[in-house]
Amino acid sequence: MLALFFGFAALLVVCSLLVVLHKNPITSALFLVLAFSALAGIYLLLHAEFLGMVQIVVYAGAIMVLFLFVIMYMNLQHDVETGVQTAVRRGIGWLTGAVLLLVGTTLLRRGWFLGPANEQMPAMEHGNVAAIGKVLYSRYLFPFEITSILLLVAMVGVIVIARGRAKHPEEGA
Amino acid sequence: MVSSMPWLSFLVFFPLAAAALLALMPRGAERSAKLWATLAAAIEFAVSLPLWWRIVPGAPGFQFEEKVAWIPSIGATYHLGVDGVSGLLALLTTFMSLIAIIGAWTSVEKRSREFYALLLALEAGMLGTFFCVDLLLFYVFWEAMLIPMYLLIGVWGGQRRIYAAVKFFLYTMAGSVLMLVAILSLWQVQKQFSGVPSFDLAAFYAMPMHPSQQLWYFLAFAFAFAIKVPMFPLHTWLPDAHVEAPTAGSVILAAVLLKMGTYGFLRFAMPMFPNALLVCGPWIAWIAIAGIIYGALVAMVQPDLKKLVAYSSVSHMGFCMLGLMALNAQGFAGSMLTMLNHGVSTGALFLLVGVIYERRHTRAIADFGGLWKVVPVFSVVFLVVTLSSIGLPGTNGFVGEFLVLLGAFKTSFAWAAVAASGVILSACYMLWMYQRVVFGPVTHEENNRLGDLTLRERLVFAPLLVLIFWMGVAPQPFLDRMQPALDRTLELTKQRAVMSATAAGLELPSAPGRLSIPPAPIATEVRP
Amino acid sequence: MLWIIPALPLAAVALNLLLGDRLGKRGTSVLACGAVLAAFGFAVRAVLHLASLPEPARHITEFVWTWMQVGDFSVDVSFLLDPLSAVMVLVVTGVGSLIHIYATGYMSHDQSFRRFFLYLNLFMFSMLTLVLASNYLLMFVGWEGVGLCSYLLIGFWYHKPSAADAGKKAFIVNRIGDFGFMLGAFILIAATGSLDFDRVFAAAPHVFSGPAGVAAVTLATLLMFLGATGKSAQIPLFVWLPDAMEGPTPVSALIHAATMVTAGVYMLARSHVLFELAPATMEVVAVIGAATALMAATIGLAQNDIKRVLAYSTVSQLGYMFMACGVGAFGAGIFHVMTHAFFKALLFMGAGSVIHAMGDEQDMRKMGGLASKLPWTHGTMLIATIAITGVPFFAGFFSKDEILHAAYASGHTGIWLAGIVGAGLTAFYMTRLYVLTFRGPSRLSHDAEHHLHESPPSMIAPLVVLAVLSIVGGYVGMPFQEGGHLLERWLRPVLESGEAGVVHHEVSRATEWALIFTSVGVALFGIFMALRSYLWNPSMATTLRARLEGVHRLLENKYWVDEFYHVTVVRPFVGVSEWLWRVWDVQVVDGLVNGVGYTLEGGSAILKLFQTGFVGTYALFITLGVIALFLHFLR
Amino acid sequence: MSLVPQPYFLAVDWWTLGALIALTVGVLVLLLLEFMPPRPNGNRGALVSLATLAAAGYAVWRVRFDKRALFEGMFVHDGLTVFFTLLFCAIGAVAVLISWNYAKRTRIGQPEYYALLLSSVMGMIIMAASNDLITIFLGLELMSLALYVMVAFRRNLLESNEAALKYFLLGAFASAFLLYGIALLYGGTGSTNLQRIGDFLGDSPIASNPLVLAGSLLVLTGFLFKVAAVPFHMWTPDAYQGAPTRVTGFMSAGAKAAGFAALIRILMRALPTLSHDWQPALILIAMLTMTVGNVTALLQNNLKRMLAYSSIAHAGYILVAVVAGGSGGYAAAVFYLATYSFMNLGAFAVLTLMGRGGDEPVMVSDLAGMGFRKPLVALALTLFMLSLGGIPPTAGFMGKIFVFGAAVKAGLFPLVIVGVLNSVVSVYYYLRITVALYMREPEGEPVALSLNAPAVLAIVITVAATLWFGMQSQGLWLEAQRSVLGLL
Amino acid sequence: MIPTVAMIPLNWLIALSAIVFTIGVVGVLVRRNALIIFMSVELMLNAANLAFVSFASHLNSLDGQIFVFFVMTVAAAEVAIGLAIIVQLFRLRETVFVDEIHLLKG
Questions:
Q1: ipTM of the complex
Q2: How far is CA D19 from each of CA C23, D22, D29, D60, rounded to the nearest angstrom?
Q3: 3-class SS at B29?
Q4: How many other C-beta atoms are found inside a 10 Å radius of the C-beta of residue A86?
Q5: Nearest CA in chain D to A154
Q6: How confident is the model at residue C497 (pLDDT cuts 50, 70, 90)?
Q7: The pTM is what?
């Protein structure tokens, strides 16, 4: 179990790094898919089977396809990133990241402790899909409804932004 | 007028309403705007006149009080009231506003509706500031007043009007925001003390404060007021504002706006924080004295008439502050009288400068000379006003300065000795200026064609001259009206000093040093 | 009805202003002179009334209205007539009337005739207020009022820059004195609680006792004396008076000879109670008086402008008066004020007559031999000259002698000696003036010769009256009378109270005679020397001048006092002011204010640089912000 | 109050949800309008939006005194909710009014625009009404997504697109921080419900659990980003400048208010025990926010950009009140938000009138001489500037009184002094606008002013509110106090 | 009863999520391609999700998982709009490099 976790974790970290490091956007995107998949694996290990599935379906399946679609639509080549400016940016970026990680872990290493564990949790033997479904439509009905509006807005928004050229001469003058 | 009528509110809001109506007048009504404005100001002045005889000088507290809840949850009230001090200053305001409006008839041709509307709005703001006895309301008027003045300077001003207007606004505001913090904090303290939130002045008067606590409050208030006065070295907005402002603006600025600062000291900073006052008073007095001399010296070398008068204001207002810091009856009365005097005399001076500026479009002293021959009436008026500004006995300036110096002397010989040299210096700069403008041969050909004072201008100056002499020869009616209120303030200051000190378990700090001459024991032994 | 005396000229001023040019020259003359004459009439009436009262009751106060009453301090507008002010009011209205009449002739061709009389009446009002005031503050009103009129009248011909300058100088120098006056008054208020003469003097001996009290009264009197030096042109504030000769001559006669400049003496005499309490001040007064008398006399030796000679003579004579006050002989001082008013007014008016006749020429070097051309002027001037030089039986002799006697008698031998020398010098320069103007060969230009004419009767008549007074005016003060002479006895109710404070050294009759002979001898010697060097042997003056080149330069340039003041006071003041304005005010104080603005704008420009427009930068700052928050919690 | 699930829905619960229901219906109706034949002069979208907002407002108003907790305490109906719901409805209505002419004129995307606007309002309401981090997050995203699109609405304009991109990327970036923070808080407290978090932390003897600290810090970051506090503010000028003016107005008022509403609820409900830890940091942030906002605004020539920096500064003032805390401080913040919304919207409403296209960059110099050409409009703009500058007798002044009063009460004198001095600095650039309006002559052709009734109505409303709340602030203040006192 | 998932220590899970989160942050900071930046943001979101799930499993609660579910929804919506904006950007400027987009600044 632990070994599996380490494998997924390593895969996740490496793929994430490659997403950031790789020059070719398509490759980056593919690594991201891989990273998401690794994450799904970890979810499974954590007995979040439903999420693992959704992770694959939504992220690796839908979102990343969208990404790839866009990248290909744009026909992007390798990112050319040379010059002092880029180097400086990189240096600062990595340094900042390192510091962020450092301060974050320093704080957390002071001995954090978990909140109160839930005692009434139903036992989960074969996945938690049913439990999630139950909760989602009872306790979490309200946020669930919000997400529906959210997706509606996203749809409308995408249509507004990305539909064809301007129809009206005044627009975007 | 029945006393139940909101007389003070009428006084405050009538000009505002008139301003609104004026601003809403149709375009092309510029010509009649001045008439309507004059009418409004005249009505206002007429309605304010009973302030002269209806205020009972000896009656305690404020009179014609109007109190309406404003923001009850924080204890802010719309609370107006008047006493001898504010009544006189309000009269000065209505009077000088009328004068300024009539004085501006020919000088403002562009956008005159708006000009007069702003003047009237300014009048409303000033009256509100003098009448209100609620700290928050006071602050509202105090700041709101800046807007019309700012626009007057900025729109109808001279070359560098924008700089001057913005500087005026920001400088004054920078000072007053700290006062706002103090007010808010004071309100907090008051609420804890009495349990009832209130911005009412009386509530603050009734509250003892630890002397060490008072210092910061006092400094915050003093800073705000000192800028308005303006006290050296916070005065640099004044020359710019005066020079750039249109004549009417300068007149109002000098005549009334500067009084806000000294009035603020008298009404708020001093009685509310007496122990801090006792500590800071001598310092402020010395700064005031420095201002007297500094203003005079700098005025001496000004090439611009308005600037000269502006710096002379610094000097005169130094006298006002010195009188207040003397903390005795003479100093207070002198200071108050100097406020009125300065309002009349300096207002008249600015009007005079306006008169020649209107004709010659220059204010440089070097552009004039020998005017007596060309415009004798103007020169005579100018002379009288100059002498009043110098403080010649028989004119108003003398009585005020004398009482201030006397008051200062009673507190400290050195104050009076150094400050009195300002009397010499004022003669130097004013007479030198007068000489260069009016005496000598006519040096500029254009000046030969100057027209003398018109009938309207004579009518403007006549009441000013009457006041100059009246207040110089028989100032007692004025003194009678202000003194009880001043005495109460002084008494209140002393009481509160003792109250605060005892509440804090401290000994009362000694008053500023006195002359070692034994006080007058003789009042009875008079030779027949 | 005391108030009517100052009110009359004031009413004339008001009428003059109101009626304006409708008045005409004649109307103006009538109005102005009439008002002053009426005032004189009322004054005479009042004084007669005063004289009719028994001696202790000669003290009439008249309350008019409360001027100001603040706290425990109160001042009234109220007038006081007692023997001292009676003398002054008579002199002022009397000589004033004469000069008014004279001026109608003198100024008859001036464009600003009306304005002149307006000022003159205003001056009369102020001067009468000064002398009739019953308290220091009202006195101060007159005090400053005469200063104002002096300013206006000196600068009467305002188009002449020199006149305007002189007027301003007079006012400002006077203001310096007034500054002292005011501070002195403050001490009095602080000590006695009042400025009323009666109350101050009644309280003074009680309040100003002990070392602290003496110190206070010394300071007070010194400050008041500073005021007097300003008004009465004493060292160090005498510089304005010679310049004041820029004004029309009647003005010089009235203000700068007869009345205003003696206000200081009057004030000292009025305050003698205080001064006698402060012996140190008295010494100072005496020394300053003597020094002024001597110094002005020496300057007078070398001046060529007829009016300037008279001006320095005035300064010198005023010095005598202060000398008298300083040695405690206030009565002698007032006596000299009176006689001096007669003969000096006469001298000025005579000089005015000459100038008038000469077509506004004032340089004595261009005169000479006028005696025959201007007989009346010459005659009266001669009398006045004799009077001032101290020739016996003329007015000046009595008063000057009394002063010298008092100086000697009080033990101030040095002062006395200075007075004697001064008397000699006075005799010399006055005789020089007389000779250069009226005697010797004529040095007139052709034009002047042609223009020359005797003055109109309106000018001559006052001269004659004054000439008479210059002769007889001294007889009120005949020496060697038991119980003091007439004036002394008249003034006694006012002046005696304090006399106790001053020790009077009795001198023997013989010494007294010796003193008289000495002073007369010195005067005669001075006259003789002048006659010898300017009339009988004119070359001698030239030789003398050549021999004493340095001294002459020194005197001609008035010891360079003006220049000294200019360098040490005026220039530094203007310089400092310029610096204060251009550097301190504009650059430092305002620079700081604007500096705040510039700093903020600079900050704005810098902050704008952070806003690069790049998403990366913005994200970086967000991350840095998070890191900073972490660091905060890591504390 | 009880978090126990209600046995059944009461009528009042429907009313409490009325605003959200109305908005949802409104959005759907608007989207359906697309299928109806277009009317050349009609503006059905705007009318429907107004009706929707009115209905939403009415529903909440009807039950304004009730207190309900729904959906297991995720949605609460209390004073704060009522106050902010009404405020958001008002902001939305004014935004509809100022959008009227533009949307009508361009005739494109009319219903979509309004649908997005209403969705955004809905997101804001959810943010203010949520008592659970989940719904807060969802509300925030709903609001933000709608706003991203609205910013990008003039999609063929480079600036608009750039603004949207920056806003979007940084918004997502900040959301990630927020989300991570929520995760940590969840880990540290075992719940996402604010009430439970608060109760747990209140009972917990250990104050500084690093998980909670780090979590609250990151959550704070997320909200500080939304309200544009330094150093998370840098998106603001670009987004505000690039966005269509009406959108800028809407989001400057609405998004800020919503962010603060949620922040206030979180701080009051969930993290009161941590105030000791975050107060110094917030003090510094508030100071920096005021100073950077005001100082940078000094040299701006583009009006929208200047107002963007000004809005940053105002976030700083509100933060002062938030730092002061207590019912007074939060009430002051609420009060300030309300007044700020009106005056800022008003200012943008005036800007929408200017320029031919309605969205051209309006420079300060474009205002030259307008004061006497269009006196009333100029007067309105002046009033808004004075109010933003905190000059009496305007609402902005009273807002400052309450904000600084609260901070004074909390003893935060350095903060208050920095604050008031900042308000002086701010007055400089607000005055620049009046200088341009009244004291400068126009150079070249003056910018046209396209007056239209709805926008004028919007200006009249905002002017009235600015003046009324300036002179009669008692009512609003009581409401503000009640809103935070009656927090469920 | 605590299930067996406790075998994966929370420390490591949190560390992992922190590392991934940081990588995401770094990606946003160092890359100039808007798409990659956006992907990095997705990485950050997923790191948060990981943290949620980890906590959820250790707290024995479903809330975290539900949260992740909503986050995914949000992410999907966000991606749609974000990509739309980026596509429009590319249409207008032919670039997706954010350092070439700085019309608005100062």
A1: 0.91
A2: 91, 5, 15, 6
A3: coil
A4: 16
A5: D145
A6: low
A7: 0.91
